[in-house]
Automatic annotation (TrEMBL):
Residues 131-244 form the Cytochrome oxidase subunit II copper A binding domain. This is Cytochrome c oxidase subunit 2. It comes from Alkalibacillus silvisoli. InterPro entries: CcO_II, CcO_II-like_C, Copper_CuA, Cupredoxin, CuRO_CcO_Caa3_II, Cyt_c-like_dom, Cyt_c-like_dom_sf, Cyt_c_oxidase_su2. It is an enzyme of class 7 (translocase). The chain crosses the membrane at residues 45-69, 90-111. Keywords: Copper, Electron transport, Heme, Iron, Membrane, Metal-binding, Respiratory chain, Translocase, Transmembrane, Transmembrane helix, Transport. Residues 20-121 form the Cytochrome oxidase subunit II transmembrane region profile domain. Pfam families: COX2 (PF00116), COX2_TM (PF02790), Cytochrom_C (PF00034). Subunits I and II form the functional core of the enzyme complex. Electrons originating in cytochrome c are transferred via heme a and Cu(A) to the binuclear center formed by heme a3 and Cu(B). Its cofactor is Cu cation. Residues 257-347 form the Cytochrome c domain.
Length: 393
């Protein structure tokens, strides 16, 4: 009896521990608090699959309890053998058909949502007109993310700015190994593959906020440190951010002498890998709006101490396996401090991650980002083409 009680206590302790551990994790990396169309549909599938599994568990346990009580050994019936039902067509049909039905109940919406997530067709406004699409090229690298906004002439890294209430399409590829792009609160996972194999998905945030993303595919020693952010701001703020980022050329001079000296050191030692402005250089992360970030390398607090250690040690211990370790520079303490002061001047826009939580909503149809050619200009161009053809004849 004591042995049975001990085993029961052990099972109960493990059950309680499992329940407690199931609640562990980062609150900002939860699929149970959806803020986007994709995440909401995935939560529906999670709930549906949980209900099905709970139903199966309850039925099995009820049958188990019934059998244990009904067919337990009774006093005086030690040699009694219950009626054997093996080979029963009715039972075999029942426990074959029921799982098939349950799988179909789960499979139908899963397939529907899978095709819905693959639909990259333009959205339609209230007038039935197709809306301009925002396309962003996403490149996964060890161990950071690079973003290029097609048609907007913007390049950035680690922080992806998007407007709320609008689909943003992503075209994703890797420069090295397989990664997986995952923003749990907005959308599901999508593999990011090398060798020219592009995958596509969309993001749509229903609320302003800063949404954390992770690489969900083991990609090397710093895989767990390959974090990034999706910053969803109101359409009007996004439009302002785009205009500010488009105005950065990389040639702007800082105001202080120390920062100016840091800019010179940066250009001599860092600009071959990093870029400021819309340069396509992506050997290292783009630093156009570096000072607006509150995380260094995606995971460390943005402090001068951490930034100094990162530049001085090239992140060798902070992010093992990163390619900056092979950078050829050798900087003195004063040069590093100057570069730090310069980097902290790189804040081209008033729209920052804090803007996503300030409670200010500025509406816009984003039409200013996609100016349409006027009919008069089209007619002039066609007239010029006709005149050229007449001259040739």
């Amino acid at each position: 009896m004591k042995g049975w009680i001990s085993r029961f206590k052990a099972v109960m302790a493990l059950t309680v521990l499992a329940l407690i551990l199931s609640g562990c994790g980062e609150p900002f990396l939860s699929t149970l608090q959806p803020s986007g169309e994709g995440a909401a549909k995935l939560l529906e599938l999670i709930i549906l699959s949980f209900v099905i599994m709970l139903f199966v568990f309850v039925v099995v346990m009820l049958i188990y309890i019934y059998v244990v009580i009904k067919f337990r050994q009774k006093k005086g019936q030690e040699d009694f053998i219950p009626k054997q039902v093996e080979g029963s067509h009715a039972l075999e049909t029942l426990w074959t058909v029921i799982p098939i039905i349950l799988l179909l109940i789960l499979a139908v919406p899963t397939i529907q949502y899978t095709f819905a997530f693959e639909d990259m067709s333009p959205e339609v406004n209230e007038e039935g007109e197709e809306m301009d699409q925002i396309w962003i090229d996403v490149t996964g690298k060890q161990y950071w993310w690079h973003f290029e906004y097609e048609d907007l002439d913007i390049t950035t890294s680690q922080e992806l700015y998007i407007p709320t209430d609008r689909r943003v399409n992503l075209s994703m590829i890797s420069d090295d190994v397989i990664h997986s792009f995952w923003v749990p609160a907005i959308q599901g996972k999508m593999d990011v593959n090398p060798t020219g194999n592009r995958n596509e998905m969309f993001l749509q945030a229903e609320e302003e906020g800063v949404y954390w993303g992770k690489c969900a595919e083991l990609c090397g020693p710093s895989h767990s440190l390959m974090d990034f952010k999706v910053i969803a701001v109101s359409p009007g703020e996004f439009e302002e951010w785009v205009e500010d980022m488009q105005g950065v050329t990389g040639e702007e001079e800082p105001e202080t002498d120390t920062a100016l000296a840091g800019q010179e050191s940066f250009e001599e030692n860092c600009l071959s890998c990093h870029a400021i402005g819309s340069s396509p250089n992506k050997v290292g992360p783009n630093l156009t709006n570096f000072a607006d970030r509150d995380k260094l390398a995606g995971v460390f607090d943005m402090t001068e101490e951490n930034l100094y250690e990162w530049i001085d040690t090239k992140g060798e211990e902070m992010k093992p396996g990163n390619l900056m370790v092979s950078a050829p520079y050798d900087l003195e303490e004063e040069e590093i401090n100057n570069i730090i002061e310069y980097l902290m001047t790189l804040s081209p826009s008033e729209v920052t991650p804090e803007s996503a939580d300030n409670g200010v909503y500025i509406d816009s149809d984003l039409s200013d980002l996609f100016p349409e050619e006027e009919e008069g200009e089209d007619e002039e161009e066609s007239d010029e083409v006709e005149e050229d053809e007449d001259e040739e004849e």
